[in-house]
Each structure stands twice: as structure tokens, then as C-alpha cells.
Amino acid sequence: LLVLPFSDLVLPTKPDLLMVLDEIKDPGNFGTILRSAVAFGLQGILYTPGSVDPYSPKVVRSGMGAHFRIPLVQADPDEIVTLTAGTTLYLAEVQQGIPCWQADLSKPVTFIIGNEAHGVSQAMRNLSHKNLLIPMPGDMESLNAAMSANILLYEAARQRNA
């Protein structure tokens, strides 16, 4: 067994790009989101109570080392308000909202991704400023949490690097 020091990763005091995972239960989704978050330059992930343990073996495996590169903070809605101050909170929505490529994601933003089965909780809905839509011209009701997060992260990175 090898033990390595684990330095504390902290959220920036003036965040520019964050994500809230609201009661994400699937370890594969959580880990995949972590991996993509690092790839696309996310500054931190907040996760609500009731989410899967981000250090469970399946999350760590699917995260592929992302845990060592991004701050992970469990936070309740009141703490989320404080930690995301200065950002626009965009709720990923299935049926209505601004198409993600029409929203200005080059400014400080926080994305809210909801539970796989029940969507975003009412507490998080109450915090959001705007709804974001991922238009799907095909005949599919929704995407899973990781796919939705990945698309939004890509779009934010595209707008910021254009």
C-alpha cells in the first residue's frame, strides 16, 4: 500500500466556473463529471447532501485521478449561495430554458446538474437564476447527468476560448 500526501484543494474566492451536483447518486456519473470538469477547466464542484460519496471506489475509478486536481465541497443550499456569489446559477433543464449556445457562458457561471431520476431539487431550483436547455432534435426525452454536464462544460470552454 502506497500512501501519498493529499494537499487541500480550495475553491477560488472569486469563482469563474463552478458546478453543483444535486443529489447525484450514480458513481459512474459523478466520476465522469469529475474527469470532464478537470478537462474543461472547472474550478470546483459543490455537491449536495444525499449525493454519492465522491471518494467511493467506483467514483474514484471513473474519475481517473480528477480528485487530485479539483476542489470537491459538500454544501447545503445556504452554503452554495455564499460559495457561488458573483456567478450566474444556470439550472440544466430538460424542457424549457435558454439554448446553451445562446447563453453567455464566458462570464462567471455555476451550472446545476440534478439527480438522475428526479432532476433538480426544489431547494436548488429556488437558487437558480436561469434555466439552460440542451436542445435535442432527435427523439429522446433526456440525457444522463454526466452527458448533460459534459455538454455544458464543453460549451463554456468553447465560448471562453473562441
UniProtKB/TrEMBL annotation:
Domain tRNA/rRNA methyltransferase SpoU type: 17-154
GO molecular function: RNA binding; RNA methyltransferase activity
GO BP annotations listed: methylation; RNA processing
Keywords: Methyltransferase, Transferase
Pfam (any one): SpoU_methylase
Keyword Methyltransferase: yes
Name assigned to this protein: Putative RNA methyltransferase
Source species of the chain: Anaerolinea thermophila
Upper lineage: Bacteria, Bacillati, Chloroflexota, Anaerolineae, Anaerolineales
